[in-house]
Design goal:
By secondary structure, this protein is mostly helical. It contains 7 helices and 2 strands; from the N terminus they run ααααααββα. A two-stranded antiparallel ribbon has the order 1-2.
Length: about 200
């Protein structure tokens, strides 16, 4: 009888852990996507001169301003993720989700759809005063997010984040954060292709 009780308790524990954890495939995919978007950003910023970092084409942000926005958003979006995870898990809320993981990634990285940036996220309001400060902040925040995804036991699929553009589960929101970095890396690259962009 005692052995049966122990076996039953172990089975319940395994079921509980499985319900709370990401699958290996989900974890690997999210980490890979986070690492990819960071590498693309670093590649786009590599060896830029001060003149290149501060170049403005029309009313577009400069490459440095894009970085300010990316770095600030990384922390703000992580705060939204943590807020969702601090609320009770609600499996029933999944019925309100309308997009797949791949659709979330495609939506946020699609530069043909323009989105008005909220004032707190405007580069001049982020509080950053230099390229090095913003890049260091971004690297630290992204490293923490990657570590979180690698180790979390949180039930990301049954916590929902609500944004003006719709609802997504917390795992999808991690993908959204990575996609957001890529969206503005694309924006940064568009500036680098503009007429008048300094050669060095």
């Amino acid at each position: 009888m005692k052995k049966l009780t122990i076996l039953f308790a172990a089975m319940l524990l395994i079921q509980f852990v499985d319900a709370q954890s990401l699958t290996k495939a989900e974890r690997k995919s999210a980490v890979k996507y986070l690492q990819w978007s960071s590498k693309e950003l670093y590649k786009s910023l590599k060896s830029l001169s001060t003149a290149q970092l501060n170049f403005h084409e029309s009313d577009r942000w400069s490459p440095q301003e894009c970085l300010y926005h990316i770095a600030f958003s990384e922390g703000a979006l992580r705060g939204a993720l943590d807020g969702a995870l601090n609320a009770p898990a609600d499996p029933s809320s999944r019925a309100e989700l309308q997009a797949t993981d791949d659709q979330i990634k495609a939506m946020i990285t699609n530069r043909t759809t323009k989105v008005k940036t909220a004032p707190p996220f405007e580069p001049q309001n982020t509080g950053y005063k230099s390229y090095d400060e913003a890049l260091s902040a971004y690297k630290a925040k992204r490293a923490m997010l990657i570590d979180f995804v690698k180790t979390t036991k949180s039930d990301l699929r049954n916590h929902v984040v609500t944004l003006p553009l719709g609802k997504m589960d917390a795992y999808q929101f991690v993908l959204f954060i990575s996609g957001h970095t890529n969206r503005h890396t694309q924006q940064l690259n568009e500036v680098k292709m503009a007429s008048g962009y300094p050669k060095g």
